[in-house]
Amino acid sequence: MTQGAGQGPERTETLRDFRVPPYAQAPAHSAQVPPPPPPVEMPPPAQPHPPAAVHPAEAFPADIHPGNAFPDDEPPEGYTPTARDLPVINRGDTVQVRVESDPAPAPAPLPDGLGPLFVVGDVHGYLDELLAALREQGLIDVDGNWAAGNARLWFLGDFTDRGPDGIGVIDLVMRLSAEAAAAGGYCKALMGNHELLLIGAKRFGDTPVNSGAGTATFQAAWLLNGGQKADMDRLQDVHLQWMSRLDAIEEEDGHLLMHSDTTAYLEYGDSIEAVNDTVHALLTRNDADECWDLFRKFTKRFAFRDESGPQAARELLSAYGGQRVVHGHSPIPYLLGEVGTEDGEEDSRPVVEGPHVYADGLAIAMDGGVTMAGKLLVVQLPLHD
Predict the structure, then answer these.
(1) Sign of the CA dihedral 220, 128, 257, 316?
(2) How far apart are CA 158 and CA 21, in angstroms?
(3) pLDDT 10s digits, 16-64
(4) What is the pLDDT of residues 215-257, one digit of tens each?
(5) What's this model's pTM, rounded to 2 decimal places?
């Protein structure tokens, strides 16, 4: 059975992961599998348009492309562009996020040999936008090579799906990791829910998993959440091994770095080391049900958004250390109840100028919503309110 997105060039309309079917969000403890849920209604196809984010045509000569996205200006057979629009959630219980008026605590002096700290939000296959954002921060040169010496760069996960070149993004991050280490700095990455989704789709395909509310498969969930045939076709063992070894959570300079804005990390350990060891062990055991439950929990969001948000952030900081949570996963326009469409008027698109500081100043959202015509964020920390 093929574990890709199909044999021919089929258009697959994408539902975002916050529309994961109910079976992906229900507890996985029922021993008896109920009847499958009704089919998910897919929205009508949207017409693809070029990404609205800054395009680095002027930054990179026409004959140079540091990644491998469409080197001949032609999308690969079966490439499925994703309509970059999100529904508005009008929630009556949503409160306005607040930022403390006092400035953030001054960071501790850096140990000798460590350079400035940068973080990158969700990329989702938008390689050109990533190259442009990294170059704007001086982290790479015009040829796409590491140019930041001993700087430290963290990616917060979600490299693939929805966009045109997820494998090109992974290849770039892997290469920059080696180049940064040779220059005295480093480039590291965290595990996102879409890494778990791609690993599961490749390993388990259409194997049914115990969702607790019906039949589910990684393959179906991957397709519903922007899985691209071109990525699956180019996915190699080296990519799978690299993704499987990513950590889930880390602390840098008082910043607790994670992908998802959820407290589900607390279910996997009472320390950063314990969480990462547990996640690695689950992926090593190669059990479809365990991997599904991990994916489902990493797909949760909005833990820090409403009235209980500051307390949720404090729980994580108390357990794992740091003064602020820094996460991706939930697009900033979505957190704020805004919406944008790729083919809309310019003033209807989400305006993202930078990270969103909220939950009484205890959380920083880094997903600028590049998949919904927002902005791919590459930002130096610390941020001062």
Answers:
(1) negative
(2) 19
(3) 343 443 433 433 333 343 444 444 444 444 444 444 343 333 343 433 3
(4) 799 999 999 999 999 999 999 999 999 999 999 999 999 999 9
(5) 0.74
